[in-house]
Amino acid sequence: MDFRVANHEHENMTGMRKGSMEYWPHRRAKKQMPRVRTWPTIAEQGFEGGVAVKAGMTHIMMVDDSDSPSKGTEVSRAVTVLEIPKMFIYGIRFYKNKYLYKEPASEAYDENLGKKVGINKSSHKLADLKGKLNEFNDVTALAFVDPSNLGFGNKHVMRFELHVGGKDVKEKADFVEKWLGKEIKISDVVGVGDYIDTISISKGKGWAGVIKRFKVSRGYRKATNKIRHVGVLGPWHPAKVMFTVPHSGHMGYNYRLEMNKRILKMGTDKDANAVNAKGGFINYGVIKNDYIMLDGSIPGPAKRLIRFRKALRSSAPKKAPQINYISIASKQGA
Prior knowledge:
The protein is of the alpha+beta class. It has 6 helices and 15 strands.
């Protein structure tokens, strides 16, 4: 047997890929505000999402109301606590269809809140735009987050776009006009037992090698005198390095979407002590505003901005869970 062929086969086994290629390419997020590419189509008037900040995790004891074998018994669940910053509607945006996509056509702003986000003068009057609704195909709300009341360093407002539900353009425009210049509460968007999709940016881990980044097998030192490397960069033909070959590079700080996260509890600033851990959440502190508690975990570290939307694919019925215990034990020693 040709020694080169045998050695090639050996290296292929050594550098076997195990990492997922579900997300490709691996690249850093461009903005702190996560993007939402798809929104649900809802005929009922209302906001279809919002913004939250990740505080930390704890665990609860609740009665299992699923169809699993443990149905009806008390089970322990890991939960994520999100604090809701102040959200305001400062403008309205009208869309026109252009070829295969929608293009922003016109915008109108609230005079007081517009100045807070750096808009001194509106180029269009809302009354004029509502007079020609037949020219537009969609309407969305322009909102911003004021994180100054959260208790940590970020003091700058952050703008984002918020889709709304409605049967037609007129219903959507009337709904956004009613909320123009007002603050949105989390109870105006979702309720206990609802399912939402979360869009966040995962924890950044800097530059990483192939072992950590793609979980390739460690090599044999006697074969190549190296261990933490890829055994082979690919076959002889095609005579190029394929994009599927594991390489070292930046790891983490990526956009990630998680679907169907159930809201187990909601509360206001008055009952925030019901979920605040003793000594505060690690790297965050204590919750001072409205909050929601989600079943399971969410990508990203504490203080990371989380966008959420109403569930796009959930068919589960809405029902409030029976929670018997919420752990507020100190997380400082964890």
